[in-house]
Specification:
About 65% of the residues lie in helices and about 5% in strands. It has a three-stranded antiparallel sheet with strand order 1-2-3. A hairpin with a 6-residue loop joins strand 2 and strand 3. The protein is elongated. The chain starts with 17 loop residues before the first strand and ends with a helix.
Length: about 375
């Protein structure tokens, strides 16, 4: 695979990156990605599949000429969507959570859009040449074979769960691992609880719709609409239709704001956990190198000392990058979750005001019906 220059500048503005459309062909989703050239009004639009996104992620992992790469908290790429007709909603929700809900894969598109924006604003990853190729080249890059990076080389180490509990030599990272474990668990629980609420709201909306239709069926076409019973059934049908729309709107607000925010937070906590684990693996490698140097015979000591120095240098670089990443991560995540919460509150407040006014009108109408 072609070697890419990690120092290249991004040729589009990060804030302009949008996924404007998605089309489905069997099990394949194709996304239209629009952006704007830097210092120009020229727009760019490319079409990408999930394989292209995966190609980009693998190339981000594989920039071996970047010192301390393993200390980076990589923006988490959502799991691949499988829009097969054989996949029920329950299967899709189990796989993707909030991203499986919403009309026309809107939530999934928003998550992928946010992923690209996060990569494009990252101080190191934004200079990765494959990102520029992904955003402006008309040809699909996903057909190329990705290189195996640090994640592939560490895949066997992931199975060694004992390393996760290995005591750190730096209290900063030891405390961060503890906080990450708690926050990851809390984020997961909060996401699951809100997902249950949204799905319940959707079920209630469906039930209200059926009830509204049933009330209409209670009125025969031959009945005089002026008859009290017919009037009441028709009015109750309208009210239940309004209740249905309220549930739908509230569920949509939960999904498009706080739901996406919690989903992103949960995936980012896992991304930080992976970074901390990679650093722990390097720490264990360094401690092993030190022990080997101490035990080495005179004729091998020089070689072992060189290995120890090389490993120690790598570990120091990783730790340095990791500390910067963690500070940036906490600041960024706090701002993002705050924005999602503010958006959530504003949308739910607007919805509550709208339907409160509508319900007041229906209440007055019902009073007039009974007073006649």
């Amino acid at each position: 695979m072609e070697e890419y220059n990690a120092k290249a500048e991004l040729s589009v503005t990060a804030s302009s990156i949008r996924i404007t459309d998605v089309t489905q062909d069997g099990d394949t989703l194709t996304f239209a990605i629009a952006s704007q050239k830097s210092n120009s009004s020229v727009g760019v639009c490319v079409f990408r599949t999930y394989e292209d996104f995966d190609w980009l992620q693998q190339n981000l992992f594989s920039q071996e000429n970047i010192p301390g790469l393993q200390g980076i908290i990589f923006p988490p790429l959502p799991s691949k969507a499988l829009p097969s007709q054989s996949n029920t909603q329950a299967k899709s929700v189990k796989q993707l959570g909030f991203l499986a809900l919403g009309q026309g894969w809107q939530s999934y598109c928003k998550a992928l859009e946010f992923y690209l924006q996060q990569v494009a604003t990252h101080p190191i990853l934004s200079k990765c040449k494959p990102l520029d190729i992904f955003l402006i080249n008309s040809e699909s890059p996903g057909k190329q074979r990705g290189r195996k990076g640090i994640f592939n080389r560490l895949s066997q180490a992931v199975e060694e769960m004992r390393k996760e509990s290995h005591k750190d030599v730096d209290t900063f990272f030891q405390n961060e691992r503890y906080k990450n474990t708690n926050l990851a668990a809390s984020s997961k629980v909060a996401t699951e609880k809100l997902l249950d609420i949204v799905m319940t709201e959707q079920k209630l909306a469906l039930a209200c719709g059926h009830f509204s239709t049933s009330l209409h069926l209670c009125v025969n076409q031959d009945d005089d609409p002026a008859v009290a019973f017919s009037k009441i059934c028709l009015k109750l049908s309208d009210i239940m239709e309004a209740v249905k729309r309220n549930f739908e709107t509230v569920a949509s607000n939960n999904l498009s704001t706080l739901g996406l925010g919690l989903d992103l937070e949960s995936r980012y906590e896992e991304a930080e956990k992976e970074m901390l684990f990679r650093r722990t693996c390097k720490l264990i490698e360094l401690e092993s190198a030190k022990r080997n140097t101490e035990k080495a015979k005179a004729n091998k000591r020089e070689v072992m000392e060189e290995i120890q120095k090389s490993t120690e240098k790598e570990f120091t670089l990783i730790s340095s990058v990791a500390k910067q990443e963690i500070k940036r991560f906490h600041s960024s995540r706090a701002n993002e979750i705050r924005n999602f919460l503010v958006d959530w509150c504003e949308k739910q407040l607007a919805t509550a005001k709208e339907f409160a006014g509508l319900y007041s009108q229906y209440l007055e109408t019902c009073r007039n019906l009974y007073s006649q």
